[in-house]
Amino acid sequence: MFHVEPRESVEPRPGRLHLFDLDGTLIRGSAAAVEISRQLGLVEEIAALEAGFLRGLTPDEFAVRARALWSTLTSEQVAAAFAGAPWLAGIREVWADIRARGERCAVISLSPDFFVERLLDWGVDTTHGSRWPAVPFVEPIHRPGILDAAAKVRIARELCEGYGVGWADCVAYGDSMSDAELFTVVRHTVAVNADHHLAGLSRHSYTGGDLREAYALVRNSAA
Known about the structure:
- The chain has nine helices and six strands.
- It has 223 residues and is of the alpha/beta class.
- The protein folds into two domains: 7-29 and 87-216, HAD superfamily/HAD-like (Rossmann fold, 3-Layer(aba) Sandwich); 33-83, no CATH class.
- The chain has a six-stranded parallel beta sheet, with helices on both faces.
- Helix 1 (32-39) crosses helix 4.
């Protein structure tokens, strides 16, 4: 385990960018859509949609159908879903350590932006989620705003360009098929409670409930 040292006592290591997935990675064994649906009593319905996604349902079609399920969703229910999600321990501490070392961190997720952006309060530099209409919903899903696996790579590339770093300076943390494409281009990768889609693609693998332990695998080796 590590501890966060005072910023001025740590030699900065500019150029390293940490890219975090959300569903199944920062949230262990669950996803934003599942936690939102739980608040609405729609666990079975979202499970059917999730199964369809695994069988090939596109992310934009998933979003359209989820939007129909969540027609009565309120901001209070989103807040409750976020608060009640099974988050890994140590997320705030990891992001504080990354920033104290002069590095950057971002969350890139296919989940709705109104859920993902709540992580900004935990200390991540930037979040990128699928663009959904505001809650409560009035507008329909704008399909081009829904992210897919390729969009994760595109956003990561844009972040690299913005921060002036390359793929060799990135660390990616993910768990499933939506992370596989990113794992093929990023040098330093950590499979976190991952399924078979990342088998053979990750440099490191972690199973457990504490992000600090996963981060420790690459904290000093990813320079």
